[in-house]
Amino acid sequence: MAASTTSTPAPLTVLTTADVTAWIRRADELISDHADELTALDAAIGDADHGANMKRGLAAAVEALAAQPDTPAAVLKKTAMALISKVGGAAGPLYGTFFLRMSTACAGKESIDAAALAEAVGAGIGGIVQRGNAEAGDKTMIDAWNPALEALRAGAAAPGSALAAAVDAAAAAADAGRAATEPMLAKKGRASYLGERSIGHIDPGASSTALIVQALADVVSGRVAGDA
C-alpha cells in the first residue's frame, strides 16, 4: 500500500490580485483574534479602543472586497478607504494612508514581486511618516514597519529575490520591532502625554502592524491560500 502524502502549497513567487485580497482577509482574522490584546495594550497608554477599531476597519475592508477587484492596486485602495472610514482615532488615517500609498505604487501592475513589494511598503511607510510625523524610536507603528521594510529590501536584493524568504524575514523583524517598543518613551500620540509612565508598555500600533505583516507572511508561505 502506498503511503499517503499531504501536499503543501508552494510559497508564492509573486502576489496576484487574489493573493493581496487573501492578505487582507488573513489580516482581518489575526486582528480579530487579537483584538482584546490590542485593546488591553491601548488601555495602558491610549484610548483603549485600538483593537475594536482595527477589528471594525478590517471587517469593513473584507466586506468591500467581496466583489473581487481586478488589480492589486484596486484591492489596496478599497482597503485604504474602508480603514479611513471605519477606524477611529489616529490609526484609521495612518493605516489608510499606508494602503493608499501602496496602491499608488502598485498602479498598473498585474502582480507584485519582492522588489515591487518593498517599493510599495516603502511608499506606504513614507505616507505614515508624513501624516504622523513619527520617527524610529518614537514608540509608534513605525518601530515595527521600519525593520520590516529593511528585511524586505534585503530580501529583494538577495540572489533570486525570493518573496517568501523576504516576507518571512519582514514578519520576524516587525515582531522584534513591536517588542522593542516596550522600554521606549512615547514621543508621539496620546501615549506621549504619559511621559515616563509610557515606558514598560508595548505600543498597540506596532503590535497591529506586526500582525498585518504576519498575515502577509502566512499568505506568501502558503499557510493561507488565496482564491483560485
Automatic annotation (TrEMBL):
Residue stretches spanning the membrane: none
Pfam family for this entry, one: Dak2
Organism superkingdom: Bacteria
BP GO terms, sorted: glycerol catabolic process
Single GO molecular function: glycerone kinase activity
Keywords: Kinase, Transferase
InterPro entries per the UniProt record, alphabetical: DhaK_L_YcgS (IPR012737), DhaL_dom (IPR004007), DhaL_dom_sf (IPR036117), Dihydroxyacetone_Kinase (IPR050861)
Occurrences of domain DhaL (ranges): 18-218
GO CC aspect terms: cytosol
NCBIfam families per the UniProt record, alphabetical: dha_L_ycgS (TIGR02365)
Protein name: Dihydroxyacetone kinase, C-terminal domain
Organism: Actinomyces ruminicola
